[in-house]
User: Fold these one by one.
Assistant:
Number 1:
Amino acid sequence: MSKEKLLELILPSFEATLKEAAGELKHPYISPGGCYSSNLWDWDSYWSVFAMLKMSDKYGNAELKERIVPYARGVFFNFIEHQGEDGSLPILMTAEDDDWFDCKKSDSQNMAKPFLGQLTQLLIEYNLLEAGDLKETIYNIRAFHECYRRRYLHQGTGLCFWANDCGIGVDDDPSTWGRPEKSSGSIFLNTFLYKDYLAAAKVSEFAGRPDYAEDYRQRAEALKNSIQKYCYDKREKSFFSVDLQCRQNLYPHRYWKQLNNKLTPFWQCLPLKVLCWSSILPLWAGIGTQEQIDDFIREHFVPERLMSQYGMRSLSLDEPMYAPEVARGNPSNWLGPIWILSNYIAWDMLIQSGHREQADELADKITGLLYRDIQQSGILHEYYSPETGKGVANPNFMSWNVLAGLMV
């Protein structure tokens, strides 16, 4: 498919996701579209802004960039202006409610996924934020990351955990969803936090805070080391989320007085060996080595696991939880369906690591998948069946589907 044809198909639908300021939200923003058409979500908005700005470069479309500018800046300032006193940020905002998941009300809740640093860096890259914009907001960014450390840092490993399974992005990820609170050292969460630290370091330099920048680089390096140490499994040749609730359980006994008295676990966590798309994130983010990348592709980018004829599955075919054709709705289904975001990241990882032929094959699968959906139904869907290529749920979803335009 030509890039001109893809633009012709995608851009009219994307216009519907551009929302004007209303009610509690003082700035225009980008919604995911479809059933989320009035929502401002944390990582959806980042990837939508990323996709449109990068496409404006790729296709030399200055008009597209100018069209997106107020909405891109609006996403940033809406989040900044709705920050909690402790530095927390909401996951979901609308004109009626600026904190649907009560992120700012309690540290027992999750908060916005770590994309604020990456969003800020992106806007600076495209000259959409100036040093003056960061004079005060650099402290908002810093407060956000400090809040992450206070709320969610596991001291034993240096990894962060989800407080619960609400609003985690990959909604029904089996390594978090349905599991005990504060137990999931999510590879998704920690990899994006690593990326956000690196982005915040560059933002801090731009804002004239080299002290912040150096601290962020140190945090990123420490987190990278923790991910390599605790989340990589040599036998499975993959990164995984880990269970952080490994503790000594003491029990009174009528004869021995106390069981397990001298049996403290010397391990800090246990791997949750669920093979899903999140396992590629450290490989994409520069945490994994070339050998780890090559091993993963050889072992897991195969039809009986992650790779289907229509694209990369979000959960491996051989996992017992695999159920890709169920339109779950709330939460959305990540138990195998093809999501364009995860496939874009896989494609980018393949490009970066020198696997160009496989990257081209994946790009052909994804662009063909979306082209057929538009031709047959006139719209895009939130996710797709890896077995039939059909849209599964939420027609008129746009969001990060636009990333396919970068894969042409």
Number 2:
Amino acid sequence: MTRQILHAHFALPPAAGPELYEQLLAIATDITPNVQPLSPDAALLDVGGATRYWDRDARGICDILRIRTLAMTDVLTTCAVAPNPMLARMAGAVTPPGTTMLLAEHEVTAWLRPRPVAFLHGVGPATATTLTKHGLHTIGNLADAPLPALTRLLGTATGRSLHARAQGHDPRPVQPQPAPKSLSREHHFTADCLDPHQHRRALLDLAHQLGARLRDDQTAAGGLTLICRYADHTATTRSRTLTEPTHHTAPLVTTAYDLYRLLGLQRARVRTLGLRAEAIRSAHQTAHQLAFGPDDERQRAIEAVSDRARARFGPGAIKPAALARPHPARRPTPKHVLHDPAPAAVSGTRPAVPVAGRPPATVPAGRSMSDPPRTVHG
């Protein structure tokens, strides 16, 4: 089913305050509850369900919105309807003030391809300069360009995103309460760290923090970025788009480890590791691919128990065993274990393992050097 997204631009007077904008959003919410504010003077409305409720097509919904905003607030509204939010915004940018524009799905390709590449939503001045320098002057040129070439030119995440947008694709939903675009956590080592095991423990902790925050906010991340800062103040960044938006810890940890392996560190002196969740969206509007087997459901059940424990006892109530115990390299050695604890293999006496500065000792038959010393009174 084709979505119908309405981009509404309100011609606010120069001296208008935030109260007028809130009033206009309330008028839009009376038409459909799926309204995403685009401060300070616009909004996105998902009118797919409103057409059935009001028994009108998309143009009729636009007429209702324009008449109400003009009658109740004396504000002129420009409306543009398209199959997704990106196209609705782009159509709204070229719609004459106070009018309505409808962009049908079968018209998207012919309408989009001839336009300059800088017109594509998400292409800034620097990116537009890079694309035109390599002969990609129109959105059609960008859509026809090989994806591997774009990823080498712009990076993996940006190349894939712009290639999809150039073909008119934008799966993002209309979010009544817009989620933050990104969420990040960092781990600062007390000293420059060369130990890969410590790096992985830090990434495990960061992924658990991000997953917990995403679940608390009822949001999901569509991508993950690893930032590694070194002792010489340089940094390396690696990004990856997730196969499906998620707020579960297991895929975040797996992706973080994969990004760490891509760094190919060899005794690098790491000072800070950071993880950033990107392309955040509402968790209620994402799909989850069902898995065969009990592991997936078991992990979800453990997460639910962990979240309830955190809500009641605090953030450190439950954590992975790898974070709860000290690293093996840092575990103190018991003071009484000075020699090889293996028992004597033959009867009689056997020489003990020599200790520096001490003469070798002998162990009576039937006893081991690991046995506690006996106390003799008298």
Number 3:
Amino acid sequence: MSASHSFKEHRLFYLETFTQNILYSPFISSSLKRETFTFKQRKILKLSQVEKSDALIVYLHGGAYVFNISQLHYLLISDIVKKTGISAYVLDYPLASDHTGHSAYEYVLAFLKTISDKKILLIGDSAGAGLALACAQALKDKIHHLFLLSPMLDASLSDERQIDLEKIDPLLSIVGLKNCARLYAGSLPLNDPIISPIYNTMKDLSPVSVYTSDCDLLMIDSIRLIDQLKENNRSYTFTLEKDLIHDWIIMPFTKEARVSKDQIIQQIKNCLS
């Protein structure tokens, strides 16, 4: 299935649920227990099953740092919880333009630091993956495993190879992402490691699993990350798909998304065994 075919045949409607009621989501399985609580005046949703585990998932959704969580994100994380038995916290982290990247970074970091008795599996897609990497760099060995799905790691979008990738990416544009990134950066430069964690050190980074596609404008960020992980002898797995659009993993109507999701679920089980 080509990226253009997949995108044109299926229209995606993102519903912002945190702004109304975090519990409203028809894509969260009724078999999961749902709890909400407040951390630093923001809502957090916990999804869980009866099974007990010495690990937990913290999930950071994508949306170019300006769009709220969607039903598709809920579907992904609820399915992961259901098939692994590991509880997940879904964070309503601060978004631009009401907040800056520094605020989002400090919020997620503060929450992660409250977890002391569990192995943390930090999962982020797209922009959420960039925020996840920035926080993992600060926390080092506190993160048990990091999952980056179609990550946005360089908000400056300054790599010249992205000019050619933009021509075959049916979803993303350099100008559009840069506009969102500037709102998110606030007074910080776009290459600040909090905003663009690709510019930070990978020396003490936890094990990482990275997923991207060859027609994703942001693929170059993943390639650069893998190069740095190799240089620093860090543990990683890298999945490079063909002809899939950015963040395909959250799109449940494709076989490729289901295959990738099953792969992530298996990796979660493997890293805890």
Number 4:
Amino acid sequence: MNNIIKMLSVNNDFRVVLADTKEISTAQLANFTGNNFVRDFLERIITNCVLLSAINDFDQKISFSLRLINNNSVFCMIDNSTFSMRYTDSINDQNLDPRDLFDEKSLLSITIGDWNTGLHTGMIEANIDSVEMLFASFSVQSEQLPSHFIPAGSTRGLMLQPLPFADQNTMKKNDEEFVYLASALEQTNWENAFDLYTSYAKLIKETKIN
């Protein structure tokens, strides 16, 4: 089943991506032995990596490197619509609190492209312990279109990306309504997920990241 839904607003002024990453998370965290708080943290990283990748061209390789305290790190890559994740073994610590992984030296870097097509890397300080806020901050600071990452549980989410000519007041209203709909997105059958947004956007494409 496709796990990515790409949409364009009815007024053509913003783009939307929905993602369901339950299967990806189950596969990538099959050997994870840490606590549920850290698992939730890793699942949110997976979801937001998929959302950011989905707004770009799937033919491009995209990698995410999160450098945390005490030599902890998380690395994700999406290449040819296939997801892979690595993280340091100490993240399996049962007593680890994900909020303690961040300090003023933590960094998030994201690279799009490869040596053949050309590389573009953006890097920001990662001293925010909300994964969604961190990715939103990256979109603002890395010369991309500022975007809002809205969680619907840890393995579903939505990315809303206003286009440059979008009206700010209208976008604020849409943003609030999409946050409100997040609880419904979390609970609804994925086959019916697009139905929640038919009054806001039109379907552009459904696809899959493995």
